Amino acid sequence: MHSSIVTPVNGVGRGSRKYYLGDISVDEAMTSVQLKSANGHHHDEPVDSEEVALAEEAATDASAKKTLVEMYDSKKKRREEESQAALKFNQKPIAGLRYAAECGHLDVDDPNDVARYLLQNKDIFDKAQIGEFLGREKEWQDGFALKVLRAYGEALDFKVMAFDEAIRYYLSGFRLPGEAQKIDRIMEVFAARYTEQNPTVFPTADAAFILAFSIIMLNTDLHNPAIKEDRKMTIPNFIRMNSGVCDGGDFPDEMLIEIFNRIRVDPISLKEDDDARESAGIGKGGAPPSALSTAGLSDFFFGSHYVEQDKTREVNYQKEGDQIVRDTESMLKRRRKATKHTSSSKKSLRDSMKKHASVKFVGTADSGLRDEYVTPMFDVAWGPALAVFSTAIESANGTDGILASIATDDEMDHAVDNAALAIEVSLNGFQLAICIAGLCGNNTARDAYVRALYNFTLLGSSHLLADRHVQCVQSLLRLGRDDGELLGVTWEHIFRALTEIYRLHQVWEGMARNERKEIKARERTMRRAAREAAQVSDGSTSDEMDDESDASSEMSDYNDVYLGLEEEMDKRMIDEANSMFIHDTIPLDLVDSIFQRSTTLSRSSLKDFVYQLCRVSRMEISGYGGHVGSDANDIDLTNDHYMKHHTLVSDSKHGNSAGVGSTQPAIYSLEKLVEVTHFNMESRPRLIFADIWGTISMHLTSTALHEEAAVAMYAVDSLRQLSLQFLNREELGVFEFQRRFLKSLETIMSRSTHTSVKELLLSSVEQLISMFGFGDGSKSNNHQGTLRSGWRSILVVLGTAGLDKNDAIALQGFKLLTSQIDQCMSVCNEEGECDGKQPDSLLSEYFVDLVNSLLLYISGPRRDLSSKSIDNLVQLSDVLAEGKVPLSSTRRKAPTTPVTLSGSGVEASDLGNDELELWWPMLLGLSQTMGDPRPEVRVKGLGTLMSIINKHFFPSSNEKDSVNGDKEDNASPQHGDLQTLQLIFRGILVPALEFEEMDGNSTSGFAPELLPPKFVHFITAPPAPDTVSGADSGQPEWINTTFEHLMDGCISICLRSLEAFNSDSLVEEVLAMLNSCLLSDSGHLAVKGLRRLQQFVSKDMELNDVTDDTWATVSHMLFRVLSIRGLPPSSVPEIEGASDEQKEQLRQDHVEAMNEFIREQRFFSNRRYIGCNAAMVIGSLLTDESIGGMMGVHWYVFLTSGLGKGIRDWERAADIMDSRVSPKSARHDATPSPPHYLENVLYARRWMTKFLLSLLTQRDVSTLETAPCQHVLKEETESLLRAFLAKESNETCSAVEMRNISKMVSDILDCFNALGDDKMSVMKWLSPVLSACIQTNNVTVRTSVQILLTRLLKEAKQTIVANGKADKP
Questions:
Q1: pLDDT in tens, 237-279
Q2: Which residues contact 157 (CB under 8 A, 6 or more apart)?
Q3: In terms of C-beta density within 10 A (0-12 exposed, 13-18 middle, 19 or more buried), how is residue 1347 classed?
Q4: For residue 147, which of 123, 175, 118, 127 has the smallest C-alpha distance?
Q5: How far apart are CA 1272 and CA 1189, in angstroms?
Q6: Which positions ≥6 away from 779 have C-beta within 8 Å?
Q7: Model pTM above 0.70
Q8: Inter-axis angle of helices 1108-1121 and 1193-1218, to 10 degrees?
Q9: CA distance 1352 to 1189
Q10: H-type helices in 103-200, by residue range?
């Protein structure tokens, strides 16, 4: 062994106890050895400390030398193994991992262990190889690399990290591969992990995924020296690029600005690249760029081998640009040579064109032609060049004109060659000019050249095609095949040409079929003629006649076809000639290659390609131009309209004509659009594909809504095929790519008018579920369970079917939906619990969406399906209550439902937010059934809602003790508490009162059932005896059939909560619910609420359970309901110092307020029933001795005062109403109507008299002496006497009213006379009040007043005498 291993290095002696074994510190090993010695020593034997120390020192020295050598050998061996593993990994990752597994460093079959190993050795392994391994396709080794990638992401912690910093941290362990699909998978895992750990930053993982790509693009743009400073991305550009991608909204500008600034100052790059730049003297931030820095950033995103490809491609583009310039100069300077030079010139041009055609697509930013020389030259030359090329092609007919009659054969040959050369040169010029225009960004020149070239093809016209026209067609197609990157919006002309080429091919195929048919017909005719000549017997005559009849019939059918086209014979002949020419010169393989090569287009070019293809497809289908999804366009399609009038000969036996111009629109471009989507779905990253899918889905959706059922069905079938392909790609749980892809199915289902289309759509959905759904495990399917977020769209489609008018559609959708529910139930029953062990279940993943789908059937028009859907909801509620729906997986799946009450005083519920989000849609949906126009659905929905609440949101019998703190171990789970029930009241039950608006007559009209007992009519007409209790007199249906059931259920829940939770919190919720009724615009609902309030306080609740707070709430509710909304002041307010204009304005405002009040009173006339019913409820409560005793004198006086205020408000309202319509005129109207305010006043005064008499007869004089009691007695007595005098002096006063009020005054005066001296002594206010009644004409009242005044005067004198005697000494 080498001496450096056993001998101290650098002369360090033994006493220092510090050894170095190469680069391994001995201190660690010594510490380990000492620990082992200490652990091995037995402390129960007494030994001498000195001897022990010497022995230990000797043993330690000997053991340390031996252990150090073993540990060094072990570490050295491990490092050698790690070095060898790194070497193998950098050459082939899987080989390195297998070698490390053989050495025992990891379990190569465990994705988590492999991910840990990669993270642990990320600074040793080649990061480019790590990135390539993590980005492997999912098919590689049954998706093992993809599992490692996900485990790699789950091993990282991104909590509370800024988004760009998280990307920086994530990408620090590997280099992104160059393939787009690999980048897509890697960034998808990052977005999923970041969204999972930071759920409040982004609404969905899709938004994080898109922003991650935007940051990568920003990093490349800002720190790529090849991009000029004036063309680098700015903050507004960055914000605009990310607008509308955050789940339909925008990211916060502050976040984007912060990200932009951080990336600009500190680019995202690997540590190795930073070290390389630093060693080369290049700063990371502001140092001048160089090839090294450029390579570092490029390598980081695309890998080193792609950098060389970029450089090579740039050099080739530059060479080609120079060659184009030289060729152009050569062509402009070339003079016409002799015939012998023609062939060589043509060969050189063909070589040049061939070379140009072999070049791959070129991006504008990489072309190198945007400089200060070429672009200005082209801007000047392209117009004249276009004129020259167009003239050359137009006039290059070769053998036409005068030359054909006077030229010799040699001259004719030269003319033909010259014309062919001119056409070839011109077409080459067209192609080169289009490419230069595209590279220079001159869209005007490019559009002009492509449009001119398309016009030269004469496609879609009624002209006969010549060779030059076909050459133009070939040039146009080669342009689309080889230079599609440069075409932009001019793809439209190429697609229109392709459509016409396809039509001509169809014409040729029809001709070929007809020709074969004609040949067979002639052969049959010849055979019949031969048989006729050979026949001699008479018996053959019949057969002959039959044969001739058959032949005649067949020829007649054939001739009828052509006779039908007799009027268009010229067009047909031209079409047939053109079709033969196109078929021989334009193969369909060339056409197909254009669409196949769409996979090589850049992102922006692909968007133009798809958009224009959709646009042309819409032109074909609708017969006019238009943007995708639009209804009209101003583009002239005169040439294309020819296709609509052309008919083709069919191969039908009866000769029916069909073709592009038949009643069914052309769908060639639609077919090609589907093919293009198939080509790009797998080859494009999801981000880029989602970009073009928006355009494609919009067009397919609008086509699926086409008025022609066959076209719509083809679009639906296309969506089905594309969905089958798209769903093969697995989706992580937090993404919603599938939902966006299938979103168009929802629109089609809700807006389509064809039953056949909807049937096909539901059949397609059934196939998707069968292939990609969760399944029941009975069938083996590799793609089973890949349907994730797409379930949302599918469930919406199934639910929307329940709203369809067609019974077959609704039944088909309901059958599919219930089959999934039954399957989920069977899985739950087999497994026992659908917890985390069963994540692949519709219940565990999309429970809320399943509930929403059932709710659509409940609201549908079919009573039987509504009833069955409610039963299914009961099943789901039981499953949820039993804990068979896991909450972890549904937390991010369920749509956010606002279930918190801000500012309501309700604390956070003990029920988890996740679980409440599952319960809430079900409860809310059942509450919506109370608005159903069908009474039986309302009753069943309400009953089910109350049953679920009572069954699952209250503690069970063995749980009641747990409320007080004595919870048993075997208690069943409780799914609600008091706070949860409060949320249910406020968010579920109270909003159900809004459905009373279903009753159109709930705010106006006559309702005799709302009148209290013993109500006196003296202005309005009293109800007829047969209508007082009639049930069919136009009464509001909802209030009479549903309100009582709703309130009974709510009060039942409230009373049960008193027993279960020992709290009256729900009493306040019931009172708040009743208060909503009292404040409603509906007089029916308010009266029902008043009567239910009386029953709730007096009968439903035990009086001992009614607290002072409850009495206070009830009293204030009744006090508030006595007032009249919008009651204006009795007179115009006076402002001191106001000008005449201000006074006039105040007067006008007062008049307008009066008119507005009258209009409102007429519209909400039923609210006049509230006053008399409120007086009745208050009277019933205050006259009940038990209730009065529990309520107390304070609230007794409060309600009495409130009733008095209400009486005065009603009198003022009556004055305002009678100012327009007098009571006298109202009496002449025999039509029953709500009570007049004066009638309410009379009814309330009768109750007020009872209250005053009750106060005056109080036994406790101290109660009567209180200031509030004295105040209400004085104010209400004075109000009664003042009203009596006013009625007495009013000649129009009704006798009934006068008789009642006189009786009330007499009763109150008699009560005063009956009071004892002790009570009379405290009523010093009575004399001034009674003085006004001395001159009354009513003898009884006048006599009572005189007696009272005499008694009061006598008592006053006695008091004075008594006081005088007391003053004497």
A1: 888 888 777 777 788 888 888 888 888 888 887 666 666 555 5
A2: 197
A3: middle
A4: 118
A5: 19
A6: none
A7: yes
A8: 10
A9: 32
A10: 111-120, 127-134, 144-154, 163-170, 180-197
